[in-house]
């Protein structure tokens, strides 16, 4: 069974303190055993036109689609999502089984 | 030094054979030692509204920003990008130093 990934691209509202949102996200992830790994980043290199206003990417990895579903419907996630949605101006979400072509073990 | 990630979200044109594009991408990645890992996926779960028309995510990881820069400016990448751009209806690119909050080693 392949790993399952939850990817979120975000543009925050101007008045939002991104560090505070990140703290909430880190707390959520640390409390949820279903989240296998969590990596994020702020774009520093892409062309303004090519990133279409998005500034941050958040990527969570789960052992299975079932673990993702359990996470997505968990009260702690729902509570965080509710707060999170008030902080964002725009977001894209993609949820997909991960197909690994090349592994970082190389 | 943190790893560097190159993230591409795509909606392909309707007439495009996605498998052919993927073959070209896999060939490129296999030939480029600067690409440390490569994972992709096709959304199967996100709400249509939340994914804003995007269907595929491609994520490449590099050991450093320098490796990414070398990859991005490599003739093989430029040649692929030229072909790739004719296959897509919409794309978002984000390039960022990866901040790992939780590791899959857990």
UniProtKB/TrEMBL annotation, chains A, B:
InterPro entries documented for this protein: Dabb, Dimeric_a/b-barrel, HS1/DABB1-like
Xref: Pfam families: Dabb
Record domain Stress-response A/B barrel: where: 4-96
SUPFAM superfamilies in alphabetical order: Dimeric alpha+beta barrel (SSF54909)
Entry-linked PROSITE patterns: S_R_A_B_BARREL
Subunit structure: Homodimer.
Protein name per Swiss-Prot or TrEMBL: Stress-response A/B barrel domain-containing protein
Organism: Penstemon smallii
